[in-house]
Amino acid sequence: MVSMTNPAPTRGYTATKDNLQSRLRRIEGQVRGIERMVEDDRYCIDILTQISAIQAALDKVALGLLDGHARHCMHEGAQEGRADEMASELMAAVGRLMKRG
Prior knowledge:
Keywords: Copper. This is Transcriptional regulator. The protein is elongated, with a radius of gyration of 18 Å. It has 3 helices and no strands. It is mainly α. The longest helix is centred in the middle third of the chain and has 36 residues. The protein has a single domain, classed as Methane Monooxygenase Hydroxylase, Chain G, domain 1 (Up-down Bundle).
């Protein structure tokens, strides 16, 4: 809960938060769909195809968050004299995203 004396911080995704939450709910539904596919003994390749679609959707969400972070959070960090720290943090996040499989 956010109090009036201590409002929630503005994040890079604040302006698109509703869209982000909608995308995440859709992804959640896709994951539940895969669970049903496994329960129903569906063909392996069909399940893998759905997993690939979910990964692509998550990648799109991640890229949007990275974009918002670079445009908003890093800008604020640079104004506060923390540009190097923010760049290192961003690159570490990109590195974690790329280390799949």
